[in-house]
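Work Package 4 report. The design task specified in the project plan requires that, given a folded chain encoded as structure tokens, an amino acid be chosen for each position. We show below one input record used in the internal validation round.
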């Protein structure tokens, strides 16, 4: 309908849908940029900084410490399948660690992001969890190898 002065007025009916909290973006019923960003925003508001996209973990830097990195969480994520618990960096570390033990092959975790996105902090959390797992006595000497990975080489792509 055209209103006065050539302004186009458009009426829309809005459905008030409860915003669901998807911990894996692959589960979104309508996957598009808007729903993806809305879901991440909703989770971030609840201080849920981790979200999966299949086996990939998205982390949104909260720029503050959250109480989700203590021994309780180390134990909770020990030897669990990815996606069975709330997304967490410990879950990714745990899957890589147990895959290394079972397959007897090196594993790789890629951490990527913009400057200030929390890559170094995420690496520290990974190393912390891997060290805690190795101290359980599964593999001798793993702790020293993991701690030797301390200085992380950052590659900048231009």
């Amino acid at each position: 309908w055209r209103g006065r002065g050539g302004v186009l007025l458009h009426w829309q009916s809005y459905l008030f849908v409860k915003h669901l909290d998807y911990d894996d973006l692959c589960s979104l019923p309508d996957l598009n940029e808007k729903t993806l960003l809305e879901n991440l925003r909703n989770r971030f508001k609840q201080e849920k900084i981790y979200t999966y996209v299949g086996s990939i973990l998205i982390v949104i830097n909260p720029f503050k410490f959250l109480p989700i990195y203590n021994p309780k969480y180390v134990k909770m994520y020990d030897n669990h399948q990815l996606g069975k618990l709330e997304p967490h960096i410990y879950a990714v570390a745990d899957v890589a660690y147990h895959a290394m033990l079972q397959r007897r092959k090196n594993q790789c975790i890629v951490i990527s992001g913009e400057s200030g996105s929390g890559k170094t902090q995420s690496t520290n959390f990974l190393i912390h969890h891997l060290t805690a797992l190795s101290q359980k006595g599964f593999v001798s000497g793993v702790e020293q190898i993991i701690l030797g990975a301390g200085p992380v080489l950052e590659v900048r792509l231009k």
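The domain at 25-140 is CATH 3.40.850.10 (Kinesin). Validation will be extended to a larger panel in the next phase.
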